[in-house]
Amino acid sequence: MESIVNTDLGGYLRRMRERVRPEQRGLRPGGSRRVPGLRREEVAALAGVSQTYYTRLEQARTAHASPQVLLAIARALELDPDERDYLLKIGTPVSDPERPAPCEDQVSEATRMLLTSLGGVAAAVLNYRCDILAWNPLFHRLFAPHLDAEAPDHAGQRPNVIRLNFLDGEVRALYADWAAEAVSNVTYLRFISGNHRHDSRLAELIGELSIQSDEFAELWCRQRVANCVEGTKVLRHPAVGDMELMYQSADLQDGNILKVYHAEPGSPHEAALRLLAPAPAPAPGPAPVRSR
Q1: Tens of pLDDT along 225-258?
Q2: pLDDT lower than 70: segments of the chain
Q3: Which residues pair with 7 in a beta bridge?
Q4: Which candidate, 16, 165, 179, 226, has a CA 20 to 30 Å from the CA of 64?
Q5: In the chain, how many domains are there?
Q6: Kindly report the CA angle at 120 between 278 and 269, in degrees rounded to 5?
Q7: In terms of residue numbers, what domain contains 86?
Q8: Alpha helices of the chain — where are they, by DSSP H?
Q9: Residues 19 and 115 in one domain
Q10: Within this chain, do residues 25 and 71 fall inside the same structural domain, yes or no?
């Protein structure tokens, strides 16, 4: 059964081969090279497999390979850990392609309590497709105040981070370095697609973005892979100005992801973030004294 999500092994191998300069692998860069990067026969030799077998992999005449062969090819192409893991995922058969995608769109009461307690940071719960299942008020005010605050609670309105970034002009304008944000979004989506090759909803998201955004389509075709779990972003918020925020992702027990944005304590960025926080609810007054 063919994958629903386009995780083409041959296309990935070609892209990775083309980016490796011959001198990186101790080969002469000159001669009659008609292609960028390494030749197929050079990758095969470096990986210790036959040229015929490697060519069959690139031409999709062989859909899968053993983990040992894939690891050897990963070393030959100097893949980083995320790229190697992705190659292992798409180069081996899906164990149960008929199994439906897990139902991960529920947020436990304990997780909702956690979000409420994180009042000083912007926090949200996402599934692996980057659908927003819940957010605290600060996350909502930081990224999408023009959307209904209750949108994550309704499947038909549920925002998707990557869809917002590429197709919503107000959200896209927040990023001071949009080019880096765009690459980060697409490389992450490519990374997680290796684990969910038969998820029709993920395939629909990728198809929608490819049709509606030429930029996304071009980046998706590059076949670059990276898992983005922490880093720093500069946001240009129309209400409070520029903020440098750190972000981190943590896996939850229910399979969802907790995404948190915070600023360096005591910095102007933290002060700007606090300006977006909703005013605290007034403390309850004293109970009325009943006359006897």
Answers
A1: 998 889 999 999 999 999 999 999 999 888 899 9
A2: 1-6, 29-33, 95-104, 279-292
A3: none
A4: 226
A5: 2
A6: 95
A7: 9-90
A8: 9-19, 40-47, 51-58, 67-76, 81-90, 109-117, 137-143, 161-167, 169-172, 178-193, 200-212, 214-221, 268-276
A9: no
A10: yes
